[in-house]
Amino acid sequence: MIFTGATPPCLIVPITGTTSAKLVEEAIEAQLAGADVIEWRIDFLFGTHQNLSFAEIGREVLSPILEQTSVPILLTLRTLEQGGQAKISDGRYRLLFAEMLDTLGHLAAPAKRIGVDLESRFAGAAVFAEKALKAGYTVVVSHHDWNETPDDLMLRLIFEEMLEIPGIVAKLAVTANSEEDTSRLLRVTKEVATDHHRPLIALAMGEAGKRSRLEGWKYGSIATFVAVGAASAPGQPQMSELKLALGR
Predict the structure, then answer these.
(1) CA 139 to chain CA mean position, Å
(2) What is the distance between the alpha carbons of residues 60 and 233, in angstroms, rounded to a whole number?
(3) Is 176 strand, coil or helix?
(4) The whole model's pTM is what?
(5) Backbone phi and psi for residue 95, each to the nearest 5 degrees, phi listed first
């Protein structure tokens, strides 16, 4: 799994460039800053180039990043409905992920360095997760709530629905409107992690949710997202801030 081997929590740095050269530059910068995993937010590129296919860009972005860095890469295509930059239909989402897996195979990308993020709302998430897992990749199944932090029962249900897919890492991101929201998310995360013994990522977006990014690992969240430069989500701390808080 791409999140193992790092001192808890695993530090994931998103890169959001909209050209191949910029993405490679950001990936190198992220590794130098201390990233344990680089997250390629593919939706930023697709948001500005709607007609691209993954087959077109995969080789010119992935190959140089794999060659010029040594840390794992998490491939994330975040849709507009889940707070991302790409407005795409379910059919196109399916096509892009099929192209992604095909391109990774053609590139012979080392499986131990590759992770893919699948949105839980996607009807084909379980099918694609199985294919990616068989190829040896890490699979994250994610759910984002950009309005609120649901009640405790709903938080648990969301986690458990994602965990119905065997072998995946379940990621739940909510919006904290108070510190109590953050405390509830962390409490439920700890309960689910204890009950299921499965890897989880949990975070609360927004200023009120910052504690989840700094202390989530104490409650069973294996990773946190940290910025090197512009943040990709509300409340995302800078690498220097996070390292100071973690005493690194």
Answers:
(1) 10
(2) 26
(3) coil
(4) 0.95
(5) -65, -45
Block residue for tokens 């104490």: 218
Binding residue positions: 39-41, 78, 213, 232, 236
Peptide bond connecting 8 to the previous residue in cis, omega within 30 degrees of 0: no
List, by residue number, the catalytic residues. 144, 171
Instruction: Name the nearest CA neighbour of 107 among 75, 64, 139, 78.
Output: 64
154 Cβ neighbours under 8 A, 6+ residues apart: none
Q: Where are the beta strands (DSSP E) in the chain?
A: 10-15, 37-41, 73-76, 114-119, 138-144, 169-175, 200-205, 223-225
Whose tokens are 């249900």? That residue is 157
Could you report the per-residue pLDDT of 69-127, keeping only the tens digit for each? Answer: 999 999 999 998 888 888 888 898 999 999 999 999 999 999 999 999 999 999 999 99
Cα 126–chain centre separation = 17
Which residues carry a binding-site annotation for 3-dehydroquinate? 39-41, 78, 213, 232, 236
Tokens of 15: 């890169």
